[in-house]
Each structure stands twice: as structure tokens, then as C-alpha cells.
Amino acid sequence: MTAFVALLRAVNVLGTGKVAMTDLKAMCEAAGFRSVRTYIASGNVVFQSNWTEARIKAALEAALAKYAGKHIHVLVRTAAEMAAVLAGNPFSEMPGNRTVAFFLDGPPACDALQTVSKQEGEQLRLGLREIYVDFVNGIGNSRLKIPAAKDGTARNMNTIAKLAAMAADIQRAPSA
Asked: Concatenated DSSP letters for 125-144?
């Protein structure tokens, strides 16, 4: 079995879609995922599955739509991909709480950074299926707009490190 990380977009943030992590865990277990663990209340879940990324995404989005009564976008990465996002952070010397990766469904367009607006010192770089941002003046003070990331979801490097470690632990564990 492969370890995966699923990231829910816009849940439990600023009063948007509410999803209890106990309910998210139960949805994953009902789908047949193994070794399910959630991390903080912002829509992060790690588990094992034999399914493809596309099948996992479709199953979780369907379960979440039934639960919430609306579409909740899910982005999925393998344990190896999550570790690669962490290792590929071009701002690794910066504090992990102000450096983020915006996770995308596919590769960002080569010109994705040309449409950025309201940039005030933030540094941006493209990843494989991510856009990395160092919020030099802090995330809460930024007005940065990244049109290419509008359907993505961001996690700071501290969270990414924890999720990568959790996924690696699950990957090493024998399949249940």
C-alpha cells in the first residue's frame, strides 16, 4: 500500500466549510483507507491506500460533498511527493511558518507568476505541482494575489514537514 496525504481546500478557515477531523477520519476509513490520521483542524489527513490519486480524490470529494452539502476541493500527494515538496522548498533558510507551498492539481503554467498582483516583497517560485511563497512580511500582512493558485490550497513548511513525516511513518509501517 502507498501512503498518501490529502489536503482539503478552504475548510475550518475564516468560517468557511466546517469539517470535523473525526468525521474526516471516519470518511476515509469508510472508503477503505488504512492507518488514517489527521493533523490539525485545517483539513489534513494521512493514510494508506492501493487506489490511484484520481480515485482517492474523487472518493473524498464525493464523501465531503455529501457531508457538507457543497463541493470541497481535495488535493492528494503520495508520501514521496510530500517529501519532495519539502526538500524542494527554495526558501528553506526562511522561517517555516511564513514560507508556504500552494498545492495545485497540475503543474503551474510557465508564466503563472506573471499574473501575480499586490506583491510587496514576497518571493515566489514554481514547483512541480506547487507554487512556493516566502511571505517576507508575514502571511497575515500580505495582500498577494496568485490567480494560478485560486483552486489550490496552501500549507506552511512546518505543516508540510509534519505531514511528510507522518506519511513516511505510515509508508514504513506494515499494511494493516
From this structure: EE-SSEEEEE-TT-GGG---
